[in-house]
Write a structure and sequence with these properties.
Order of helices and strands: EHEHHEHEEH
Number of strands: 5
Strand order of the largest sheet: 3-2-1-4-5
Strand content: 15-25%
CATH topology: Rossmann fold
Bound molecules: [cytidine-5'-phosphate] glycerylphosphoric acid ester
Helix content: 25-40%
Shape: globular
């Protein structure tokens, strides 16, 4: 039987940390589904909109060879439903989310993978800002 892996994220200003987690998630199973968070969800969580709008973030993630399927993640509160709808066997998240999704261990395996060091969307935005200010 094939193993379905699912993961979620914003993937704003797509970078190598995103490539690494998607590649590793793919390697854990036979089919990788990715939920890409909405602009509105980011605004309500972080108080700012992503740099890239959701349609573009979705398109970038969908273009990866390791990604089989994408959908828009409307809310953190729908996670259980998403896992059921997509028949997920394994939920993968980076370890910045360590423990946060353990409640779903009753319906699938939950794995937290180490984040890629020294890169983040926030740092990239900060770096660009400081170059403009110089
Ligand atoms: N990531 C990583 N290494 C980095 C940066 C990010 O492994 N240097 C991983 C994160 O741990 C996450 C994924 O890449 O698993 C996407 O990260 P973000 O785009 O920051 O996603 P986030 O805003 O945390 O959204 O339902 C959960 C949310 O949609 C997650």
């Amino acid at each position: 039987m094939s193993t379905k892996v699912i993961t979620f994220g914003t993937y704003d200003v797509f970078h190598v940390g995103h490539v690494n987690i998607l590649t590793r998630a793919h390697d854990l199973g036979d089919h990788l589904t990715v939920g890409v968070s909405t602009d509105a969800m980011n605004f309500s969580k972080k108080g700012r909109y992503p740099v890239y709008r959701q349609e573009h973030r979705l398109e970038i993630v969908a273009s990866m060879a390791c990604v089989d399927e994408v959908f828009i993640e409307e809310s953190l509160d729908l996670k259980r439903q998403y896992l059921i709808d997509h028949k997920a066997d394994i939920l993968v998240m980076g370890n910045d989310w360590e423990g946060r999704f353990d409640e779903f261990k009753d319906i699938c395996e939950v794995k937290y993978l180490p984040r890629t060091d020294d890169i983040s969307t926030t740092d990239i935005i900060q770096d660009i800002r400081s170059r403009i200010d110089d």
